[in-house]
Amino acid sequence: MKPITGDSEIPDFAIHRFMPFRLSVLSNRMTRAVARVYMKRFRLSAPEWRTMAVLGLLGAMTANAVVESTAMDKVRVSRTVTKLLRTGHITRRTDPQDRRRAILELTAKGHGVYRQIVPRALAVEAEVLQDLTAAERAAFEAAITKLESRVASIALDAQV
């Protein structure tokens, strides 16, 4: 252990082996790899594509549901929605059940872009995962699912 000040000590810490850091770096690099698919040709940012992807997969939803589905912050989603509305990729309508809420949905143009990007994004994912065996892919998927569940329960505990 290395002393900080006085009697305080912290364990040895190597950021390059710290799992949250490693996952963040991997995520950023994978996002950039997939971004090559949609940035230049479709002029979409990563948050714009993520928003379109959840709307394309899950259908119409509120901005809060986009926040929940993507783990993006509310400000980023709000800015993203504004841009996607301006470019004609999504629409926003008042929820007839609750007039305070707005429902977001892909337009025909948005669906067209979504259908073009998905196969390309999946091809990049396949390229990234190509060195993993089927068993390693299954184990990786299972581990990610467990980690997502655990992080979600920790976040819920923190809110209480």
In short:
The protein is mostly helical. The protein has helices at 19-42, 46-58, 63-70, 74-86, 108-129, 134-159; strands spanning 2-3, 9-10, 90-94, 102-106.
Describe the fold and architecture:
This protein is mainly alpha-helical and 160 residues long. Helices cover 66% and strands 9% of the residues. It is built from six helices and four strands. It has a two-stranded antiparallel sheet with strand order 1-2. A two-stranded antiparallel ribbon has the order 3-4. Strand 1 and strand 2 form a beta hairpin. It starts with a strand and ends with a helix. The model has no long low-confidence stretch (mean pLDDT 91).
What's the topology here?
Blueprint: E1 2-3, E2 9-10, H1 19-42, H2 46-58, H3 63-70, H4 74-86, E3 90-94, E4 102-106, H5 108-129, H6 134-159
Helix pairs in contact: 1-5, 2-5, 3-4
Helix share of residues? 55-70%
* SSE-based structural type: mainly alpha
Give the tally of β-strands: 4
In order across it, which strands form the biggest sheet? 1-2
Termini separation (Å)?
33 Å
Residue runs with pLDDT of under 50 for 5 or more positions:
none
Percentage beta strand: 5-15%
Largest sheet: 2 strands, antiparallel
Shape: globular
Tally of individual helices: 6
Radius of gyration: 20 Å
Secondary-structure element order, N to C: EEHHHHEEHH
- Give the mean pLDDT: 91
